[in-house]
Amino acid sequence: MGGPVNARRLPTAYLEQPCRAALHHVVGMGFEWSLNPYVGCAHRCTFCYVRSFERRADRASDERYGRTVRVKVNIAERLRWELSRRSWQRQSVHIGTATDPYQPAEGSYRLTRACLVALDDFRTPAALITRGPMAVRDIDVLATMTAHAGATVIFSVPTLDDAVWRTTEPGTAPPRARLRALERLRAAGVNAGVAVAPILPGLSDGADSLAAVLAAARRSGASFVWPSMVRLQPGTREHFIEALSRDWPELVPRYQQIFAGRTSVPSAVAAPALEAMASLRARWGFSEQPAPRREPPAAPRQLALRL
Predict the structure, then answer these.
(1) For the residues of 260-305, what is the DSSP string, one character each?
(2) In CA terms, which of 251, 252, 262, 281 is 20 to 30 Å from 134?
(3) CB-based contact 230:199 (threshold 8 Å)
(4) Cα separation values, 222 from 80, 134, 263, 287, Å
(5) What is the reported pTM?
(6) Strand, helix or coil at 228?
């Protein structure tokens, strides 16, 4: 196996660009509204589905992806304007659907935090998915949101295997650091759980690998766990197969067969992993979905600023 690309040593350029809209309407995803403070992601995961979006937008989806991150410097202000409209019905907003909201840039720009404060001020529930332990910095806001309209934090933890993690997620924090962050959020009363995603055939789909993740999630107090098999759409597929040929060349023929003429893992291949997940969830009493939120109260007239 070849050595992984050390994404931490690759330079990242940050381009500060204002956005015209903060919220984006989503169709066919199980939620209606998404919000992403950044475009591009310094985590540079080899399997990232966003690479396919970048390719369709005629932007780099190969090794260059993540070396430039666009920062929506005015997103919190735009969000407050959009939330103040009479037409806004305070539907749940999903954060991090196209980039990690707690990637390194957030440490300086604090845009995710500013957006969470705005959502809470307008009593709008939110769900957030991340690989970033930096979420613990915002425990105060997330706990307040939990008491008001509701907040859910989903930590993506596909594996605890160090070799698989370092090679496929070169710019991320260790999985166990994410689980420690989850434990702290749960201790503060925040609804938080684990997405075992993406599950990679031949790398992280073994019963022992999945059991290790769920056991660690249970020790961390996760309130839910759900799985998802990897998807390789154009843009993502080419980069992932190229990385696979460098790191696990023996698996390339299997992936070429699995994804021949398709973008998702066929049910016959996915079944053992998904059945193992279902059995483990049942054994340890995990829900597959976050607890349903209650209807948010009316937005307060006086809005506090807690940045």
Answers:
(1) TT-SB--HHHHHHHHHHHHHHHHHHT-BSSPPPPPPPPPPPSS---
(2) 281
(3) yes
(4) 31, 17, 30, 10
(5) 0.88
(6) strand
Count CB-CB contacts under 10 A for residue 163: 13
DSSP output for 47-70 = T-THHHHHHHTTS--STTTTSEEE
pLDDT score at 292: 42
The token pair that represents 192 in the structure block: 């938080």
Q: Mind listing the pLDDT tens digit for each residue in 243-301?
A: 999 999 999 999 999 999 999 999 999 999 999 999 999 998 887 666 444 444 454 43
For residue 156, what are its two tokens? 């993506």
Q: What is the DSSP letter of 199?
A: E
Q: Which of 307, 304, 294, 303 is nearest to 147 (CA)?
A: 294
- Tokens linked to 50: 């966003």
Tell me which residues of the chain have a pLDDT lower than 50.
1-8, 61, 291-297, 299-307
How far is Cα 211 from Cα 306, in angstroms, rounded to an integer? 40
* Number of neighbouring beta carbons within 10 Å of residue 114: 20
**pLDDT for position 236:** 87
Of 51, 12, 2, 57, whose CA–CA distance to 171 is shortest? 12
Q: Which pLDDT does position 31 carry in this prediction?
A: 84
Instruction: For residues 289 and 153, give the distance between their C-alpha atoms in angstroms, rounded to a whole number.
Output: 12
